[in-house]
Amino acid sequence: MPESVPPGSLRLLTVHAHPDDESSKGAATMAKYVHAGAGVMVATCTGGEQGSILNSALASEPRAHRDLPGLRRVEMANAAAALGIEQQWLGFADSGLPEGDPPPDLHEHSFAMMPLERAAAPLVRLVRRFRPHVIVSYDENGGYPHPDHIMAHRVAVEAYHAAGDPDRYPGTGEAWAPSKLYYDRAFNPARFTTLHEAMEERGIESPFAEWIAKRMQTDAEGNPPPGLTHETTTRIECADWFEARDAALKSHRSQVAPDGFFFAAGLDLQREVWPWEEYTLIDARVPTELPETDLFAGIEPESAA
User: Residue 249: helix, strand or coil by DSSP?
Assistant: First the structure.
């Protein structure tokens, strides 16, 4: 276990596909738990090296073009410092987001193309070393259907179920069974609809209308988009840590513009109308009662050893 995590601490592990995902999904929750004394670790599956420069302010910065993977590692370190978390690279190659009709094949050595057991082994090793009580990752659709997000979901579920079995993944450490598995709901349409309506009521231009419309769009045959797979079971009140979340997001300068989509609704408005982050409890090895307001609900102090 990392020396920075005191013995007996509750521990949270979140699993993300690329650097910056941890800051746009559940970051305020992580900062809150760090403040409360929990150990919080982010596992980043890939280096995000297939990403593009999404902040026009960096268009003239030579390093962003010369060494984007190196820059993204620096950005990740700065985001981790803003949240107070620990972070571990799992070391896989970014698959990129294939575009076109038909889309091109993924590189055979990319994260999304790895056999599941090979992709999950580093995460199982990390689970057995860090010994988290709670794991959080994406739903089956990856939050949105990027191939690396979908694979991050698969390896998180695999590690949750396998890490406690001493007969599986030999050579990756002593077995440890996490107590709870959650899926993140950062892109719950209800959140963006609420923010959009609140901004319009106050006469503030909202950038969310197009995003909401796309989520509600029918396909070429008039079929509506698939319904939400999972409903919210757990809301974490974390408005006091929205500033830390935004600081972490802005640390990812190559990917997030400081005047962009994520910052359109001011902090005061967000604290008023949506002061939480949401999750779905998928599995629990401890007694639970829904709805929840704490990811560690049901975990007894003696199990935190």
Answer: helix
Q: Which residue has the tokens 């349409």?
A: 189
Residue 176 has pLDDT above 60, yes or no: yes
Secondary structure class of 87 (helix, strand, coil): strand
The owner of tokens 């076109």 is 100
Instruction: Report d(CA 21, CA 206) in Å as an integer.
Output: 23
304 has a pLDDT exceeding 60: no
d(CA 151, CA 110): 11
User: Quick check: helix, strand or coil at residue 7?
Assistant: coil
pLDDT of residue 259: 85
pLDDT for the residue numbered 142: 87
pLDDT reading at 180 higher than 80: yes
Written as one string, the DSSP assignment of 224-293 is: PPPPPSS---EEEE-GGGHHHHHHHHHH-TTT--TTSGGGSS-HHHHHHH--EEEEEEEEESS---SSBS
pTM beyond cutoff 0.90: yes
Give the pLDDT of residue 281: 98
| CB contact set of 270 (below 8 Å; sequence gap of 6+) | 195, 239, 242
Are 156 and 235 in contact by the 8 Å Cβ rule? The answer is no
CA 179 from chain centre, in angstroms, equals 19
DSSP H/E element including 205: none
